[in-house]
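Researcher: Checking consistency across runs. Here is COMPASS-like H3K4 histone methylase component WDR5A again:
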Amino acid sequence: MNCVIESNHLVLCSIFCYWTLTGYNRAISSVKFSADGRLLGSSSADKTLRTYACSNSILTPLQEFRGHEQGVSDLAFSSDSRLLVSASDDKTPRLWDVSSGSLIKTLNGHTNHVLCVVCCVLPSIPNPT
């Protein structure tokens, strides 16, 4: 996005479309970049997640993640971009392996839709001696 401030009041912006995500059967609910900017992830109401490699002006499809029973509302990459967490209307967050597209873990127990997820790095906790 290029923005220009004129007379300290007016901001003129132009936005360029670099990529268009296609091939979904329903609405895309979330799009996120990995921390290193090399990957783009998307979640959709069609029950899927997808990852893409971002390189220059080319967006290359990598994986399609299937397993949710209802629409996927959100996603988050781990800080090292090796894991992906998803939130879904099926009341489960799920943990995925980014490189293989395989499901690692389903976190059951929620009683309603899971709307959002976040990944964070926890500080190291030393073992008690």
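Researcher: Does this match what you'd expect to see?
Model: One thing to look at in this run: The chain has no helices and ten strands.
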